[in-house]
Amino acid sequence: MRKKPILSNVTDIATTRFFNIQSMDVEFSNGEKRQYERLKPPGNGAVLVIPMLDDETVLMIYEYSGGTNRYELALTKGKIDDGETPLEAANRELIEEIGYGAKKLTYMKSMSIAPGYQSSETHIVLAQDLYRESAEGDEPEPLEVVKHKLSNLESLVYDDDLTEARSIAALYMAKEAIKRQLSD
């Protein structure tokens, strides 16, 4: 049976606008002790949204990514503001990033990114029954919105512009969820 380790001496060793780098002492149930470091983002987590124009067409964006220093093909995403639920944040991000809102939002699951050293959590949301609506967001430039077919997913995931694992996993989840919806 797994027994959670005991954390002590959790200390912020560096802080940026996006992350706190923390050091922590970890004591395992067998008495072994280690020091870990982790990135702990401030805030309430993030959302990643799969906007479906219809049962087959997903809307994706090209957005500049500082980590790779290039434009990446990805799904709509963003942080959850104070007082927002993940579904509210998902709809807000859709409206700001792609110019659509959703009448139907379905929470899929939460995902982590590199849980060995990051504590961030991303809530995956399927957005359907879209309608046109826009609002100004925090993007430094307009985002390019592109359409892709879920029937071409197997080739899409090998597109050199689509490298984000969360987006790839979410696309497969959406394809399966829509398949189940259509068979019910």
From TrEMBL:
PANTHER family: ADP COMPOUNDS HYDROLASE NUDE, UDP/ADP-SUGAR PYROPHOSPHATASE. Residues 39-175 form the Nudix hydrolase domain. Keywords: Hydrolase. Signal peptide: none annotated. GO terms for biological process: nucleoside phosphate metabolic process; ribose phosphate metabolic process. Its cofactor is Mg(2+). InterPro entries: NUDIX_hydrolase-like_dom_sf, NUDIX_hydrolase_CS, NUDIX_hydrolase_dom. This is ADP-ribose diphosphatase. GO terms for cellular component: cytosol. It comes from the Bacteria. The keyword Glycoprotein does not apply. It comes from Candidatus Thioglobus autotrophicus. GO terms for molecular function: ADP-sugar diphosphatase activity. NCBIfam families: PRK11762.1.
